[in-house]
Amino acid sequence: MKIVSAGFVQTALKKIGWPESQLPEIAFAGRSNVGKSSLINSLLNRKKLVKTSSSPGKTRAVNFFLINQKLMFADLPGYGFAHGDKREVAGWKRMVEEYLTERESLKGLVHIVDIRRKPDELEEMMAEWSEQSGLRRILIANKCDKLSKSACLRSAKIIEEKLGVKPILYSVLKGTGKKELWSAITPLLTD
Ligand SMILES: Nc1nc2c(ncn2[C@@H]2O[C@H](COP(=O)(O)OP(=O)(O)OP(=O)(O)O)[C@@H](O)[C@H]2O)c(=O)[nH]1
Ligand SMILES: [Mg+2]
Question: Which end of the chain has fewer CB atoms surrounding its CB within 10 Å, N or C?
């Protein structure tokens, strides 16, 4: 997709803060630090539209972006930045589950994982939520530049076994997988 315009719309901690919109929307979700915000920048060919950070927990609310005046992206908060903190997990769960189950214009979920990690139970739970709600899901294994090609393929198999879909191998750093991801997103926008 040719990106003519891309801009930040608003940020929301709960439903009342979501922008009113009839436009098709795609959400980006996953653990903290897997590269959700970086991946959105990469898809939109922007360097700094979405704030990123090397320390986990940068995105703490749902951030909405308008692209070409015809579609929306939602950057969801990550989880796992304070590992084992029950309140953190509960807060994250409430925010993400409410969004995924109640956002009417949501057309699909881009679920991002780190190629170097075996998916954990919350990642499996996210996969289950989207199965249950009939949400179309695209799985991304990001940071592929960190492993050799063969290690990436091995890792991708494990991710597929755990999460039930074959991941697109992605590297924000190298631009790998970008075309493939756009090709997966585009048909979701018109359904
Ligand atoms: N090597 C490498 N680093 C990456 C890649 N994608 C993202 N990063 C780095 O990973 C770190 C986290 O990126 P973010 O985009 O802020 O991650 P996030 O998932 O939005 O994190 P939260 O907002 O905390 O949930 C940053 O230092 C990025 O530069 C990639 O493909 N390869
Ligand atoms: Mg982020």
Answer: C
Spell out the domain ranges in the chain.
Answer: 6-184
**Does residue 66 have its Cβ closer than 6 Å to ligand 1?**
no
CA of 143 to the centre of ligand 2 (A): 15
Q: How far apart are CA 24 and CA 38, in angstroms?
A: 21
Q: What is the pLDDT of residues 98-108, one digit of tens each?
A: 898 899 999 99
Q: Any idea which fold 6-184 has?
A: Rossmann fold (3.40.50)
**pLDDT higher for 162 or 97?**
162
Ligand 1 centroid – CA 36 distance (Å): 7
- Considering only 29-33, 65-69, 137-141, which range has the smallest mean pLDDT? 29-33
Q: CA angle, 84 as apex, 78 and 87 as ends, to 5°?
A: 70
